[in-house]
Here is the input.
Amino acid sequence: MLRPATADDADFLWAMLAFAASPDDPRPAAELQAVPELGRYAAGWGRDGDVGLVAVDDATGELLGAGWYRTFTAAEPGYGFVDEATPEIAIACTAAARGRGLGHRIIAGLLARAHADGLARLCLSVHVTNAVGQRVYEDEGFVAVGRDDEGQHITMVAPTRPEPPADQAVTVRSVPPGALDRAALPPSEWGTVVARLGQLLDLDDLPSLVAEIGDRPAGLLTWRHDPATGEVEVVGIEAWIRDRGVGAALLRAVRTEARALGAERLWLITNNDNLDALRFYQRRGWQLARIHPGEADRSRERKPSIPIVGDHGIPVHHEVELELRLP
Here is the structure.
């Protein structure tokens, strides 16, 4: 569970700050306190405007992690300082608690608390080598806005948002090949056959991930694993309920599937007109890998329903490959 951080949690916040500053070799709190740029994140915790959440194991009461934000001044900024109206987050989990989704829940909780307090956005700083942290923040809506002078820390910003009711949370379940009940789902905008790179793939022959909000189907992602390359392809993805984090939840789930298979790369194909998708994926850490000139025309020969002109009025001739490298 998550509970609010209080002044009594100061020692634990210092311990988490040590993990955040040096995950593999956390330093004693006394050393952090001696470094003004680090110490100002936790010194005098509990002052006006300080907000934090502590993750606690429901069964044992063990403290698993914490995230908090406070406002800095231009004279004494944090590493991710944007302006004096934008609080900055510090967050870390214990080594034993990593990989359990705590980071996502803490960040989401802080964004919701900030929204309730009337704040427009939050910022944070992440080291360029912390690929896992960057994925978590991108999943929760943070975008990179700059780097420090040495190029070692990325500043990221996200708008705050309200916390959805418990029965409105997005859940994702896995469906094996051939077991998808199409009759229980909304009709697919793209049909059950996908054409890309001049090939046809039947989605019903592939494993799927179904997103749900309460008892309502909210989205669908279909994927395939190539044993020859060890890579995982996202073949199809669509969200039937918009602006609720459905697509992001599906991408997180397929990333988990890919890691379980030992894959080092996720990839997908879209077309040159699909600007909404290009923006969506790149905001979540996906990178442009290559352009396949004329491939949309080849795919259209196999699937004539592919439009000649897309939703944005751009002629659809090319296919765009995006990738996500898995740390």
The helical segments are 10-21, 29-33, 36-39, 102-116, 131-139, 246-260, 275-283, 295-302. The mean pLDDT is 89.
